[in-house]
């Protein structure tokens, strides 16, 4: 089993990048919005026994601090993306790894870009609608970037768990200003664009801007949500939860026991992502825990002893450059 860790003094467990964790009122507001992303500030204020202006101020502050915000999220399968990769990119110049990662993050179909402690390579997830498009993206968009030396790619065969209520709101600005053309018609796309700018904007305000009735906006949103095409999700930055460690785990599991392993891990609330993938390491897991000690404990005392686990490689994430919060798995 290989563990990759170093420079752990750079991590400050339990502290968000703005050095402020949500207080009890913030958490009550977050809970109300997670229960109903379209609930009005007036209703939240009445429920919590504070003024509407206090609610508005708190929501705006959490948005500015990148602690919490409501985002429109589209289902990957519903808009035609059937493939996602687990890729690692090696740079020709080890001193240019960060700048190369920023160039890779500019590729539209790159879903996630991050680095792990103790490694001199870039971790990348790419989404594609089919194998031909995937090949084209890797060859003509990623590999063509000056400085790329080598790309190693495995494909997710099945995504078991995809939790999106907690994410990295500091990695990049939420995807704003464009919507997949395969989503509904032009009006559907314009509604989503308005929600990208402000996930809490009222149906009345959207109807005013788009010059259609409020009922039309309400019905369009209802249809997109019932069809599992769109979800409005309150996303909190993982640092604000006090769980400041994101950790990646690649596990080699005996194929006939992989389902029992995924069932065991899926039940854990700190497990954010589980995917069965091609390659010798056939299981990828992303977890979010308070400390490096907790991360190691999960790997060594929970995952390692599970029947069927043969080997694993794990490392804490040091820096995330890009996260596509706008594309998820709903169904």
Side by side, the strands of the main sheet go 3-5-4-12-9-11-10-6
Report, as a whole number of angstroms, the end-to-end distance: 34 Å
Average pLDDT = 89
Low-confidence stretches: 1-17
Structural class: alpha+beta
Helicity range: 25-40%
Overall strand count: 13
Radius of gyration: 21 Å
**Biggest β-sheet: count, sense, barrel?**
8 strands, antiparallel, barrel
Q: How are helices and strands ordered from N to C?
A: EHHHEEHEEHEEHHHEEHEEHEE
Shape: globular
Count of DSSP H/I helices: 10
% residues in beta strands: 25-35%
SSE arrangement:
Layout: E1 2-3, H1 24-35, H2 41-48, H3 52-64, E2 68-75, E3 83-91, H4 97-105, E4 110-116, E5 121-128, H5 131-142, E6 148-162, E7 166-167, H6 186-197, H7 203-210, H8 214-226, E8 230-237, E9 245-253, H9 258-266, E10 271-277, E11 283-289, H10 292-303, E12 309-323, E13 327-328
Parallel strand pairs: 1-12, 2-13, 7-8
Antiparallel strand pairs: 2-8, 3-5, 3-6, 4-5, 4-12, 6-10, 9-11, 9-12, 10-11
Helix pairs in contact: 2-3, 7-8
């Amino acid at each position: 089993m290989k563990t990759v860790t170093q420079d752990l003094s750079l991590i400050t467990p339990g502290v968000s990048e703005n050095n402020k964790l949500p207080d009890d009122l913030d958490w009550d507001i977050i809970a109300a919005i997670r229960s109903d992303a379209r609930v009005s500030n007036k209703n939240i204020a009445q429920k919590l026994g504070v003024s509407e202006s206090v609610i508005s101020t708190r929501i705006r502050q959490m948005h500015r601090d990148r602690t919490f915000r409501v985002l429109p999220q589209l289902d990957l399968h519903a808009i035609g993306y059937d493939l996602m990769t687990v890729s690692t990119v090696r740079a020709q110049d080890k001193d240019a790894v960060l700048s190369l990662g920023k160039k890779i993050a500019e590729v539209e179909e790159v879903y996630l870009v991050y680095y792990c402690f103790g490694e001199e390579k870039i971790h990348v997830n790419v989404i594609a609608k089919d194998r031909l498009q995937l090949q084209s993206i890797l060859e003509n968009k990623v590999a063509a970037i000056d400085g790329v030396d080598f790309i190693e790619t495995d494909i997710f065969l099945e995504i078991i768990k995809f939790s999106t209520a907690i994410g990295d709101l500091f990695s990049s600005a939420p995807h704003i200003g464009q919507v997949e053309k395969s989503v509904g018609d032009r009006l559907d796309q314009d509604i989503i664009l308005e929600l990208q700018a402000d996930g809490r904007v009222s149906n009345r305000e959207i109807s005013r801007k788009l010059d259609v009735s409020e009922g039309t906006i309400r019905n369009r949103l209802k249809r997109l949500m019932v069809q599992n095409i769109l979800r409005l999700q309150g996303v909190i930055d993982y640092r604000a939860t006090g769980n400041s460690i994101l950790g990646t785990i690649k596990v080699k599991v005996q194929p006939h026991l992989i389902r029992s392993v995924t069932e065991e891990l899926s039940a854990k609330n700190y497990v954010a992502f589980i995917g069965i993938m091609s390659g010798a390491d056939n299981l990828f897991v992303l977890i979010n825990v308070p400390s490096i000690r907790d991360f190691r404990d999960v790997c060594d005392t929970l995952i390692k002893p599970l029947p069927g686990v043969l080997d694993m490689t794990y490392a804490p994430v040091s820096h995330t450059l890009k996260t596509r919060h706008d594309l998820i798995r709903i169904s």
